[in-house]
Amino acid sequence: MRVPRVPRDARRTSKAVDPHVTNTSHSAAPVEGGPLWVPTPRGPTPGPAEIGGKAYHLARLARMGLVVAPFFVLRTEALTCLLGGGAPPETEEEAERARERAERAPLPDELRKALREALEVVGDGPLAVRSSAVGEDGERSSFAGQFETVLGVSWDEDEVWRAVRRVWASAFHPRAMAYRRERGEGAGAMAVVVQRLVETVAAGVAFSVDPVSGDGATAVVSAVYGLGEGLVSGMLEADTYFVRTVADGEATVETKVVHKPRAFRFDAAAREVRAAEVAPALRDEPVLTEAEARAVAKQVRTLAAAFGVEQDVEWALGPGPEGPRQLFLLQTRPITTLGEARPGALRVWDNDGVVESLPGVTLPLTYSVARRAFGHLYVGHCLGLGASERDVADHRAAFHDIVGLVRGRVYFDVATLNRVLLLVPGMAPRDRHVAPMPEPPASPDEPLPGPLPPDLLLAARAFDVPGHVLRSTARLADELDAFRARVREVLNPLAAADFRAATPDELRGHYERLDRGLLSRWEGPALNDNLVPHWTGLLRQMVRSWLPGTPPGALANQLIAGGSDIVSAQPVRLLAALAGRARGNARLQALLAGDATG
User: Fold this and answer.
1) Sheet of strand 127-133: strand arrangement
2) Three-class SS string for 15-40?
3) I need a surface site. Which of 221, 370, 505, 588 has the fewest CB within 10 A?
4) Which run of H or E residues covers position 242?
């Protein structure tokens, strides 16, 4: 039953939070105990196991006296109780049942009263309802984009409950479950944050260091008009500010302004967030002044120093006590993309994808060729997935540091590979459905880089990824034919060459022709490598959607297995044939088992 709306003035008490007061003292009487937690000036703060990672970080910001919008939290125990307790779901079938229970759960009477009291504390106005899973926004995993966020929720306990159920249900979405399993996070539990939706004039994200280069002297601030939803979703392009610390603590600002025809704003009449036109005079103007960019950068660096780890912060400018462009902090979490770029950080090597080509000890000359070849390969890989030629050129040096020589063997430098893949629009480099890559084991000494979010400077182009995939698929056959012809053109003359009698200069000439004609022109195979994960991932999604309850990976593998023209599959086929012959030959079986005596 819907609770009648109380007149605005009647809802206010002497302790209620005014809509424009943006400090986090939350001085209204809290909802003590039970499934909800409301921050108070002197009350204890629950740990991440009770309120999840996002809410815990918000509470830390509040304790520091920083400006965040008022909020409260439905604890993890609320979801556990709603689902009847017991062990968290592990299989897809269990997750589906848990998701259905979360989506249909009625609002208990005792929780209705608690929600009403908590809403009084937050104050009237549209709300944002966000996930706060255990492990979310951690140093190891960010869970970025894995769970639902509901913006523009009405000030009403029934509406809030509907949004909360959507967020809870997303905890059991197949992509979120797979994400947890891949990172060893376990099934986990989820709390939910209900927070006043800030009426923003500008919003964005900020990093205390450059997340691509690891440059500790440069903070990076990205900004859009209106709400930050368009930026974090990759639907809008953003202005970028590189705030560099120079001598005497001064900060210089390098600004890259983009054309910004649209912004996301809350439509009060429609009660939802919508894309809106930006005034023509503002579309090519900077979203922030240099002073504002410096202020955001200073704040995020302060948080990094306070938390002892580099920070990734979502922020907004909106009306508050200090004026119409008051700085709000919406979320903070450790940057999970730096890897070994941080001084003294753990460096991770992985030979998955290398050992097949270079299985043994590799001599320096071979390594120098392999290093260059892998660089060429990943240049083609990124360009094939939609990275711009300019961005690839700007990071050319990183492509040739993708592999390293460790005790005579070649390995991927995982963090460098991650950062290179950030150049791809919409890419999460450790998302195996998009680009399979090494998955290093967890280290007890230091958290490894987590899943990489899209490069915020490039993510606005991610909306064209489906079209890019279709166009690439259409030209794949021609690209592969051209590559085969190029292989014949380059290698056939070498078949007659006498390398033993060649002078060093002649050998170098052979290599340079090979490099120019083949190694640096790997478009066909790179394009094929790009497309296989996309279409395989799509096939699995189709199995999951059309055949609920069927293990998507197993069926997808069966559907695409059996191709006889794959060269790399021939060794396996030959071994299977040998095994078949050995089954009927006792003597041969004994030889293979090492039991033969003569």
Assistant:
1) 36-37, 71-74, 190-196, 127-133, 149-153
2) CCCCCCCCCCCCCCCCCCCCCEECCC
3) 505
4) strand 239-245
* pLDDT (tens digit per residue) in 180-222: 665 555 556 788 999 988 888 999 999 999 876 677 889 999 9
User: Measured between alpha carbons, how far is 408 from 215 in angstroms, rounded to an integer?
Assistant: 30
Q: Distance between CA atoms of 296 and 238, rounded to whole angstroms?
A: 15
CA dist 150 and 137 (Å) reads: 18
Count Cβ atoms below 10 Å from residue 370 Cβ, excluding itself: 17
With CA atoms as reference, report the closest residue to 458 among 133, 185, 238, 228.
238
- Each residue's pLDDT tens digit, 434-455: 333 334 333 333 333 333 334 4
Question: Using one digit for the tens of pLDDT, what is the confidence trace for 238-248?
Answer: 999 999 987 66
Rounded CA-CA distance 428/182 in Å is 13
308 or 419: which leads in pLDDT: 308
Residues in a beta bridge with 334: 311
> How far are the Cα atoms of 331, 430, 554, 561 from residue 558, in angstroms, in the given order?
43, 24, 6, 5
Q: Which of 128, 280, 159, 288 is nearest to 221 (CA)?
A: 288
How far, in Å, CA of 156 to CA of 310, rounded?
38
Its pTM stands at 0.53
CA of 463: how far to CAs of 468, 477, 588, in Å? Answer: 10, 25, 58
119-123, 298-302, 342-346, 589-593: which has the minimum mean pLDDT? 342-346
